[in-house]
């Protein structure tokens, strides 16, 4: 069997990006939450905030670690698998990614050291400053990386001469047409992700009568924010969709599952799109719904996929279903965030055991929604690498063979699986220990009362020769 | 733009960035390389704690190198990475395992030995891969137009294996002298003991590289022996620094060995640049061939000139915050 380096590289890139994406989308929101907690601690001196901040910083450290190592891969993957694309787009992508490193990565990495290890080595105000810098760093990072991605969706400010993109306007390229709404949509998604994780974990502690004081505080703080952000996301998402309709109509046609150009297109709730038959099976929809949403007219025209040649269409079923999963989960988040605020106002939030259980069950929801949204936008861009200008197969590394691409694909899957399983396992351990194990006085007093008593930093001397597991 | 050679400025900036990476991640990779030889688990804890607050920032210089190459010398990026495809994968896999080991090791009980291995093997593989990259750069690449056209294992030759092992040894020396600086007691005594052996190993590789490189690469041969009246200064300086280093170790000076080892690396680095100048993608393309548009170089340069001083400033500040010995009290207690 002939191995196709393009297909394998696409799978590899999709895998690495998807794996990587779930970490920053969580840490961006969490970093802001930690900085906020540190700020409250600085102002009020309330130990509840220190307990919360210490606990979530511990979680942050594990997740950030996994995000960093998987992110390093991406800085080099452009070159290893997509060298023609890298070379072509270097005039734009190079500076943008470099700016991400110097304005964001250094900020995160260096101040994270102070945030994690410096609480008693620097003044309280400086520690707060470090927390803020980490949060700012994660945010700046998403600015640049979304600009780069957005440019591949709606390229601007460049002209292609002899296979190389040359800059005509930096402002137009960085702030390309779809950048603003895409960035806003992503930023809100990041806050929703962290927020729903905090909700879910706090709810779990409350149901198990652990860390009650701090969990109540975290729950009520977060549920209000979520009740504001989740509906906002619906509006921003809608605007982003309208924007996509303007710039990448074939992507929207795939999202809506519309094959024929039509006026008064229905909003499909369910369908099984078939790429080869060029139609949907088992359609269930709201008449004229899609036209109403996208054109704000009942009889507005929506261009169908058949206006594009079959080889220029994205894979409809993937886009169609990813979109529905994202929207469905988004609606669930709105419902339960609002329900939480209602209970909070009634003074019954901490006793609403059913709602608390739902929050815990919903922890995966924002991650799945983010990945689904990512699939919509990236699969929907296909077959283009740079929309309308450079096709995916044109960007591949010429010396890359299918065998090499397969080798590294399997390699990354194995490495990431090992890291992911271990990371989730240790996160589970941190979670089980809970915020109460991070009470303020623990840390100074040395080894015995160290957070996670079963995880002392020092083993007693000589009881375990290197390389032999304890207890053997 | 005729008065200012942007490309030359970028060579200096990226050259500086790569040197920063080698010196800074070099010592924390070195700590990982030496990990299994440490005298006790307590010593390993000390070693890991000595780099825990700073390793992440150190490694960021590598990402800067990658992104900076793409920005200023896209041809280097587009040729080196495909040519070193398998090697890059090994480097990344190594960095992944050692990176997560920092977080996971201190949360593990029975599985701690796994993360000890991950930290050690990951660091060693990453260091070896970096050394092999240097060797491959000296060797040259098969290029047509602006793309690599050779095979997947062209980079892997006896010569690159040798440069790979050389860098592993060099990083280990950096790691050992860093350990001298940052620890005390048993851990430090052990570091004092192994440092002379690492100096000997380092010198052996220096000798090997000095003989083998001109035999591998004709251009280097001509450059070295055509300018012998100037270039003899490198081996002499190397020997002098090694003697300084050895004396410092004998006299138990805690800071000097680390400084001396870094000086050695600076020397080697300058030596490499002089030998290869002006080729970015040997044997044919110079840095000027490999450069991106002047507009892109300028756009990034303006930002760098503003931002990099801040980066250096707060990086230096964190080293200051975490100065002094790694004691028993300050563990991985975040």
TrEMBL record, chain A:
Keywords (A to Z) from UniProt: Cell membrane, Electron transport, Heme, Iron, Membrane, Metal-binding, Transmembrane, Transmembrane helix, Transport
InterPro entries: Cyt-d_ubiquinol_oxidase_su_1
Membrane topology: Multi-pass membrane protein
Predominant location category: membrane
Subcellular location: Cell inner membrane; Cell membrane
TM segment ranges: 12-34, 55-76, 96-116, 128-146, 183-206, 218-236, 321-344, 356-376, 404-427
Record protein name field: Cytochrome ubiquinol oxidase subunit I
Organism of this sequence: Natronospira bacteriovora
Family: Belongs to the cytochrome ubiquinol oxidase subunit 1 family.
TrEMBL record, chain B:
Compartment(s) of residence: Cell membrane
Transmembrane segments: 7-24, 75-97, 118-139, 159-181, 190-212, 224-246, 258-279, 299-322
InterPro entries found in the cross-reference section: Cyt-d_oxidase_su2
Keywords: Cell membrane, Membrane, Transmembrane, Transmembrane helix
UniProt cross-references to Pfam families, sorted A to Z: Cyt_bd_oxida_II
Bilayer disposition of the protein: Multi-pass membrane protein
Keyword Nucleus found: no
Main location: membrane
DNA damage among keywords: no
NCBIfam families from the UniProt entry: cydB (TIGR00203)
Family (UniProt): Belongs to the cytochrome ubiquinol oxidase subunit 2 family.
Stated name of the protein: Cytochrome d ubiquinol oxidase subunit II
Organism name: Natronospira bacteriovora
Gene label: cydB
């Amino acid at each position: 069997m002939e191995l196709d380096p393009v297909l394998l590289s696409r799978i590899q890139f999709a895998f690495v990006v998807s794996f990587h994406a779930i970490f920053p989308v969580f840490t961006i929101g969490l970093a802001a939450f930690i900085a906020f907690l540190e700020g409250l601690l600085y102002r009020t001196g309330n130990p509840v905030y220190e307990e919360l901040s210490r606990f979530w910083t511990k979680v942050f450290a594990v997740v950030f670690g996994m995000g960093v190592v998987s992110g390093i891969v991406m800085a080099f993957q452009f070159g290893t698998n997509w060298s023609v694309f890298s070379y072509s787009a270097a005039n734009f992508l190079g500076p943008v990614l470099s700016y991400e490193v110097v304005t964001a990565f250094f900020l995160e990495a260096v101040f994270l050291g102070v945030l994690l290890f410096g609480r008693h080595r620097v003044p309280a105000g400086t520690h707060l400053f470090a927390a803020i810098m980490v949060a700012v760093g994660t945010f700046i990072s998403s600015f640049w990386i979304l600009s780069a991605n957005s440019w591949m969706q709606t390229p601007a400010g460049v002209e292609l001469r002899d296979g190389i993109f040359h800059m005509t306007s930096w402002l137009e390229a960085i702030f390309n047409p779809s950048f603003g709404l895409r960035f806003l949509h992503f930023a809100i998604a990041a806050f929703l992700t962290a927020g729903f994780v905090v909700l879910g974990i706090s709810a779990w502690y409350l149901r198990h009568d652990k860390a009650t004081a701090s969990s109540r505080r975290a729950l009520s703080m977060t549920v209000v924010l979520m009740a504001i952000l989740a509906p906002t996301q619906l509006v921003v998402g809608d605007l982003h969709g309208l924007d996509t309709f303007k710039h990448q109509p074939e992507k929207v046609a795939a999202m809506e599952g519309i094959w024929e150009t039509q006026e008064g297109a229905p909003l499909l709730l369910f369908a099984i799109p078939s790429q080869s038959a060029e139609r949907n099976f088992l359609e269930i929809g709201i008449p004229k719904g899609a036209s109403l949403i996208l054109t704000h007219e009942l009889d507005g025209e929506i261009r169908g996929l058949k206006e594009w040649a079959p080889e220029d269409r994205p894979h409809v079923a993937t886009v169609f279903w990813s979109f529905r999963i994202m929207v469905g989960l988004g609606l669930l988040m709105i419902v339960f965030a609002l329900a939480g605020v209602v209970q909070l106002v009634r003074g019954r939030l901490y006793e609403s055991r059913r709602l608390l259980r739902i929050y815990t069950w919903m922890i995966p929801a924002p991650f799945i929604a983010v990945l689904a949204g990512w699939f919509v936008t990236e699969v929907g861009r296909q077959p283009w690498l740079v929309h309308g200008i450079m096709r995916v197969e044109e960007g591949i590394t010429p010396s890359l063979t299918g065998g090499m691409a397969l080798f590294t694909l399997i390699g990354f899957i194995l490495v990431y699986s090992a890291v992911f399983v271990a990371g989730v396992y240790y996160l589970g351990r941190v979670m089980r220990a809970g915020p109460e194990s991070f009470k303020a006085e623990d840390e100074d007093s040395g080894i015995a009362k160290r957070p996670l008593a079963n995880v002392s930093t020092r083993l007693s001397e000589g009881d375990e020769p290197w390389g032999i597991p304890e207890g053997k | 733009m005729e008065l200012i050679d942007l490309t030359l400025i970028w060579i200096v900036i990226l050259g500086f960035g790569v040197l920063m990476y080698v010196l800074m991640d070099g010592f924390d990779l070195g700590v990982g390389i030496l990990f299994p030889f440490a005298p006790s688990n307590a010593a390993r804890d000390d070693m890991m704690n000595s780099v825990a607050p700073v390793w992440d920032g150190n490694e960021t210089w590598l990402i800067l190198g990658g992104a900076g190459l793409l920005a200023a010398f896209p041809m280097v990026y587009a040729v080196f990475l495909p040519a070193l495809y398998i090697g890059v994968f090994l480097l990344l896999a190594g960095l992944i395992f050692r990176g997560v080991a920092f977080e996971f090791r201190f949360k593990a009980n029975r599985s701690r030995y796994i993360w000890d291995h991950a930290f050690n093997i990951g660091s060693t593989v990453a260091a070896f891969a970096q050394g092999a990259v240097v060797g491959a750069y000296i060797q040259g690449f098969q290029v047509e137009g602006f793309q690599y056209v050779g095979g997947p294992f062209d980079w892997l030759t006896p010569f690159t294996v040798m440069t790979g092992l050389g860098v592993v040894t060099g990083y280990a020396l950096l790691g050992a002298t860093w350990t001298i600086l940052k620890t005390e007691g048993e851990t430090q005594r052990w570091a004092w003991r192994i440092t002379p052996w690492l100096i000997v190993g380092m010198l052996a590789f220096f000798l090997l590289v000095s003989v083998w490189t001109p035999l591998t690469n004709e251009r280097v041969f001509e450059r070295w022996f055509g300018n012998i009246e100037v270039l003899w200064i490198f081996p002499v300086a190397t020997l002098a620094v090694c003697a300084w280093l050895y004396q410092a170790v004998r006299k138990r000076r805690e800071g000097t060995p680390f400084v001396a080892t870094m000086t050695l690396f600076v020397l080697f680095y300058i030596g490499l640049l002089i030998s290869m100048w002006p080729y970015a993608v040997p044997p044919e393309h110079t840095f000027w061939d490999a450069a991106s548009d002047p507009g892109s170089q300028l756009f990034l340069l303006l930002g760098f000139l503003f931002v990099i001083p801040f980066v250096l400033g707060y990086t230096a500040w964190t080293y200051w915050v975490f100065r002094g010995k790694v004691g028993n009290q300050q563990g991985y207690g975040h």
